[in-house]
Amino acid sequence: MSDVFAIAGKTYRSRLLVGTGKYKDFAETRAAIDASGAEIVTVAIRRVNIGQEAGKPSLLDYLPPSEFTYLPNTAGCYTADDAIRTLRLGRELLDGHKLVKLEVLGDPNTLYPNVRETLKAAEVLVKEGFDVMVYTSDDPIVARDLEQIGCCAIMPLASLIGSGMGILNPWNLRLIIEQSKVPVLVDAGVGTASDAAVGMELGCDGVLMNTAIAAAKDPVLMATAMKYAVQAGRAAYLAGRMPRKLYSADPSSPVSGLIGAK
Question: Distance from CA of residue 8 to its chain's centroid?
Fold first, then answer.
C-alpha cells in the first residue's frame, strides 16, 4: 500500500505491529511475523532474550534488526522506576536504540495501566531522548497529557491485555483520535481480524497485537488474516462509509425509469 505512516520520523508501509512473545519457538515467531507483513516488532526486555542470556537462543538471530524495527517494551513493570530501568537496558542491548513502548501496569489480574506511574515514566524517558510510544487507558485526558509530555504515539487499550474482547469503547477511542496530533494505535484486546478492522475504520493509525496471533490455533494463518484486516479497515476509513439511516431504506437500484413502469 502507498498509504504509509510515520513514527518518530521514520515511515512504514505496514500499520500492523506485532509482538514476539507466546509463540512455541522462535521459528514460529518468524513465520507469523513474515505472514503479518509487520515491520515493527515488540519485544519484552524482561521475557525475551536479545542478548541478556549469553549462549542461549536469541530473538536477534531470527528477527535481525537489519530487517525489522525493534520496539522494546516494559511488559511486567509496575512502577515508573522499573520501566525506566528496563528501557535503559534495552537501549544498551540494542546499541542506543531510542524507539520504545512504555507500559506501566497497575494490577496483575487485569494488567490495566497505572496512568500515574505511566505519566511519571514518560516525562523522564522523553527528557532522556527516547521516542516513547505509550500504552494507556482510553481516557482522552490522559492521552492528551501524554502527548503534551512528548510521546510520539498514543496507544489506548481496546480491552484488557490478552482478553480478546475487542473494542469495548469505540467512542473514547474516537475522541482520542480526533484530538491527537500524533499517531494513535489500538493496543491490547484484539481477538480476531474483525476487531483490527474496526479499529482501523475508526481512524486509528495502526494496531498492535500479540496474543491474538500467537494464541490462535494457526498463528501463521491468523497473522495473514490480521494483515488483510488492517489494510481493509484502513481502506474503508479512507473511502468514507455511507451515512447511517434510521427508519428508512434506500434501494440499491434507481426507482425511476423502471421497465414497464407508467
Answer: 15
Q: Does position 17 have pLDDT exceeding 70, yes or no? A: yes
Locate 62 and state its grid cell: 531470527
Q: Which phi-psi region, left, alpha or beta, contains residue 228 (left: φ > 0; alpha: ψ -120 to 50)?
A: alpha
- Helix intervals (H) in 22-179: 26-36, 59-62, 80-93, 115-127, 140-149, 170-179
Q: What is the mean pLDDT of residues 160-189?
A: 94
Determine the residue type at 225.
Answer: A
Whether this prediction's pTM lies above 0.85 is answered by yes
Distance of alpha carbon 190 from alpha carbon 92, whole angstroms: 31
Query: Cα 242 to chain center, whole Å?
Result: 27
pLDDT tens track for 102-146: 999 999 999 999 999 999 999 999 999 999 999 999 999 999 999
Grid coordinates representing 173? 477511542
Position 259 confidence tier, pLDDT thresholds 50, 70, 90: low
Phi and psi at residue 243, to the nearest 5°: -65, 145
Axis-axis angle for helices 140-149, 170-179 (nearest 10): 30
Q: What is the pLDDT of residue 103?
A: 95
Q: Are strands 206-209 and 16-19 parallel, antiparallel or unpaired?
A: parallel
Q: Would you please indicate which residues are annotated as catalytic (active-site) residues?
A: 101
What ranges make up the beta strands (E) of 21-168? 40-44, 69-73, 99-102, 131-136, 153-156
17 close to 40: Cβ distance less than 8 angstroms: yes
Grid cell locating 254? 434507481
How many separate helices (H) and strands (E) can be counted in the chain? Answer: 9, 10
C-alpha triplet 71, 75, 78: angle, nearest 5°: 135
Q: Please, how many CA atoms are within 13 Å of residue 191, restricted to the half-sphere of its CB?
A: 8
